[in-house]
Please model this.
Amino acid sequence: MATYLTRNQTNGNQDKWTFSSWVKRSSISSNQCIFATSNGSTTSFDAKFDSSDRMDVYNYLGGGFGARLITNRVFRDVNAWYHIVIVYDSGNSTEAHRLRIYVNGTEETSFSTTNYPSSDENSDLNVSGSTLDIGRQQNGSQFFLGYLAQSILADGQAYAPTVFGSTNADGVWVPITSPSVTYGTNGFKLDFTGTG
Model:
């Protein structure tokens, strides 16, 4: 049975935030949400692996995609931990910096779908009346199958992946145990350890 977390959102910064999580997949070739939001009908923000094992990150606004990036790269290694960082910063003057995806410290730049947010376009994250789910889509489907560790939301901040991870002496991207983060109104850190 798949597990997930859910909570009702309150109003926070809808124009700028960073989500970081370490993920290890246990199954491939199906839609699996790392996190998703929804107001129940017309808007959502989803970050997921699609059925082709690509990263699909989108802001859906009342009948159309306000923003969407789908990577050309696929993620099929069920033995690997991937550090996923998603930065939403719609106020950024550089269009390609308004929505960014990093994996293991490196920015993804090759996409099959490229649709950046308009300037100052609100996301569905940090919206009162919407639900935030970690580990599934809000409608009760597309469960994430695998492991999550150190999942962080920084509300109101656009952080580089180096805030959350670094390269060790062996050249491996590893987590920073206690990252220096300003969490803002709706921010959180979930370690998902066995004891806390």
Remarks:
- Residues 105 and 161 are 5 Å apart (CA to CA).
- The mean pLDDT is 95.
